[in-house]
Amino acid sequence: MSQTYDIAVIGGGPAGYVAAIRGAKEGKRVVLIEADHLGGTCLNRGCIPSKTLLHQAGILDQIRNAASWGIETGEVAFSLEKMLNRKNQVIATLRTGIAGLLKVGKIDLVQGFGEVKPDKSISVQAADGLRTVVKASSIILATGSTPSVPPIPGLAQVPYFTSDTIFDVEQVPKSIAILGGGFIGVEFACIFASLGSKVTVIEMADRLIPQEDKDAASILTKSLRKKGVTIGTGLKVTSISKGDTGIEIHAQDAKGNSEAIPADALLVAVGRKPNLSAIANLNIEKNGPFVQVNEYLETSIPGIYAAGDVIGGWQLAHVASAEGQAAAINAAGGKQKGNMKAVPRCIYTSPEISSVGLSEEEAKAQGYAVKTTIYSHAGNGKAMASDENSGFTKLIAEETYGEVLGVVMVGPHVTEMISTGTAFLSLEATVDDVANMIYPHPTVSESFMEAAAKWLGKGIHA
Ligand code: FAD
């Protein structure tokens, strides 16, 4: 069986399904090819299940803290099974929603594993082995990524989880070691610490979340330690073996000192690699391990576009969707550049961390003279009322005209508030603009005004 379309999208994650819908809105006949569930990593094994569990874990923590606020609750109990069931319900509902959107957009869904042939036809193999051939004028490759598993001696001989398998863990491990202190590792550290596991995070860099702001990393480190998490930074794992009761991780610090870290369970969260088997038959240019694209998201083969985790950069769902939309516009004959000037980045730990734009170091490296201010939330009324005032709001701005180049926030709901920071960058706001807006009181968002006013030397509370 063979069918012809204007656009064929391979991969139904945030890059692919959004590209398919956008392509249809541009008036094109679109097919979406997906080997597994709609929604990709983000919906099925990433953003949504982790945020559902983090929400539940946060409630457990709040109930445990409640006594210090005068609320007596007694012993707190939970059912992991019910928590995971709820997570599955959230996923199922959202998956159905995507299927509905495809239907409304008259997008054909072909379930199966797609492989692009040298003549640019796509051979799709369904789970039952049946093959379909799909032909399209343009192809959008949105095959995403999967967890990288490093070649550590002994790792293959012990049981371990990745983010693909941990969401269906059957019982809470007494102790868990997490390899990797990036955003995925620290979010799972929060979840398991709240569920009662003894958590150890092992990170090779000299601090947690090495891609993010160091002051934010330092607050996160303190907060995780307060939750009982052991943090080993600057540690290189040299081997892994079976221990007396579980697993033993052997690690070495920069000075060559070795230590053995025992754990009942192990989660490997050290990065993600692109899924490239769909293009195994093609000679597409790469950028390191990732698919190389130009500013219009087109690969080295004309008519084949790529978007999302498969092209590297910030491996985030909203980036994938923005790239997917741009790729679809271009595949439909338009000329849309991927605009990555103001990409918000969020970590949903306790406290939450969010940022957008340039760090002070990046701004300096780009030739800007910069001035940075930090407004501590210690004196913010709303943060104090919520008993979450350890965070801050940081503004990085160009020194002469005060254009805001970057924002970093740590504290309650900052993953929601960073969109205001994104607006500052997108609209090229200056610190004057930020300082002169009126913010509702009491809110943590007042910290934007305080940080900007402090930058101008006119702070009221700082
Ligand atoms: P994917 O979501 O990986 O989708 C690719 C799809 O392509 C998959 O469904 C796959 O089955 C399909 N596919 C692959 N090859 C083929 C083929 N040959 N034929 C047919 N189908 C194929 N990002 C955020 O922005 N916020 C978060 O809070 C967040 N949390 C995360 C938490 C975890 C634990 C993880 C692992 C990731 C998280 N991410 C988060 C990252 C986010 O999930 C990814 O950036 C996003 O899913 C990338 O989208 P994508 O469409 O490029 O790829």
UniProtKB/TrEMBL annotation:
InterPro entries: Class-I_Pyr_Nuc-Dis_Oxidored, FAD/NAD-bd_sf, FAD/NAD-binding_dom, FAD/NAD-linked_Rdtase_dimer_sf, Lipoamide_DH, Pyr_nuc-diS_OxRdtase, Pyr_nucl-diS_OxRdtase_dimer, Pyr_OxRdtase_I_AS. Gene3D superfamilies: 3.30.390.30, FAD/NAD(P)-binding domain. Coiled coil: none annotated. Its main location: cytoplasm. It holds the Pfam family Pyr_redox_dim. It comes from Brevibacillus centrosporus. GO terms for biological process: 2-oxoglutarate metabolic process. Residues 343-452 form the Pyridine nucleotide-disulphide oxidoreductase dimerisation domain. One of its GO terms (molecular function) is dihydrolipoyl dehydrogenase (NADH) activity. The active site is a redox-active disulfide bond. This is Dihydrolipoyl dehydrogenase. SUPFAM superfamilies: FAD/NAD(P)-binding domain, FAD/NAD-linked reductases, dimerisation (C-terminal) domain.
